[in-house]
Amino acid sequence: MADPSAPRPPRPRKEPQPLVIPRSAAEEQRLRLERLMRNPEKTVPIPEKLNEWAPRPPPEFVRDVMGSSAGAGSGEFHVYRHLRRREYQRQDFMDAMAEKQRLDEEFQKKLERNKMIAEEQTAKRRRKRQKLKEKKLQAKKSKLEQKKQEKEPDQSQEQASSEDDDEDSKEEEEKEDDAEEPSFVMGRG
């Protein structure tokens, strides 16, 4: 155990913080954040979400049943008033919950409807793109067929000509084929 008469090491003094009175909510929030960031290792208490208020359920068995006979004391009015207030509060709560539930259901229906509309639009655009793609392929095929038909008469004439002309025409055909065939196809992944 340490000797009580031994001098203690001096404690590091915290520098005094100036008193700042926030003028707005933003400034107050900034001050709180600065205070939190002075010591980042310190845990920050995060409050739990408060449960929604719900009225006390009605009693299952009522012992103090008020009769309709005359002669009730003056204190009974206050008991009746509190019971009535509590019952109205409970009914208002139930109405508010029913309204909230109805609004949630409407919102979910609206989300589903918007989702269906978006899917229909997407499908329609997909069909349109597919149709356009097929048209391009058909046009390309017909163009290639036309070129083949044009080349067939040329080839019969070339066979009649000399071999030098034949080699030149083959080189030209290869160049034409290279120029006509795309090096890549867009839209395919």
Task: Outline the structure in words.
The chain has 189 residues and is mainly alpha-helical. Helices cover 63% and strands 0% of the residues. It is flat and about 120 Å long. The mean pLDDT is 80.
What's the mean pLDDT score?
A: 80
Strand content: under 5%
Number of helices: 3
Cα-atom radius of gyration = 44 Å
Helix content: 55-70%
User: N-to-C SSE series?
Assistant: HHH
Q: Based on DSSP secondary structure assignment, what is the total number of beta strands?
A: 0
Structural class: mainly alpha
From the spread of the alpha carbons, the general shape counts as flat
Largest sheet: none
Oligomer: single chain
First-last Cα distance: 76 Å
List keywords for this structure.
single chain; 189 residues; mainly alpha; 3 helices; 0% strand; flat
SSE topology sketch:
Elements: H1 25-38, H2 74-160, H3 163-180
Task: Provide a short characterization of the protein structure.
This protein has 189 residues and is an all-alpha fold. 63% of the residues lie in helices and 0% in strands.
